[in-house]
Amino acid sequence: MAEALDALEASLPINGQATDSTDTSKSAVIVTKPIPYTFDLGNLLVNDANPLPPNPSPAHLSTAARDCAQALINQLLTTCPITSSSDGVLMTLPPPTTPLPREKPLPAKKDQTKWEKFAAKKGIKDKKKEGKLVFDEETQEWVPKWGYKGRNKDGEGDWIVEVDEKKEKQEVKGNEVGVGGAGRRERKEKIRRNERSQRANERRSRKNEGGAG
After folding, report:
1. Is residue 140 pLDDT above 50, yes or no?
2. Model's pTM, two decimal places?
3. Which of 72, 59, 56, 53 minimizes the C-alpha distance to 8?
């Protein structure tokens, strides 16, 4: 980059005027056009709004392309910061300003599954979106809702628990001993109820689909 800057400065005319890019004896380093170029340096893009003559020759097209490339190099060397590092000389480009088209088309929208249609119809929300952690006010920590050390197991490991007289009578009547595992039994019973409810929903869904067909 430093050598290119030196070459650019050395090529400037003494009188400060730009060289005509149509001079075939020597390629011009400073390019001037009736309509100035516009640049998008982030995309290494130069726009030339100058009209071409009817049926331009290959030589004319080559000259126009060379002038655009030269103008882009000049703009990069004079406006973008250049730094040296152990990896070499680096140039920092500005953010692109020209939107480019996508390489691939937008992905097609996926059809809803049977469960998603059923959940949307019944107003069932996806629990995964609510997050897997909850804040424990006692420990001031985030703990999982379910599983190991989950909030659904609160009270199961307590060495002393408050006895509910009504539940205690039911346990004695059913020959169940101890109240320490009451929370665990309630949790398992809740799981069984949820499973039964889910199976009933599936049966109703299949019945409704069969009637609709």
Report:
1. yes
2. 0.40
3. 72
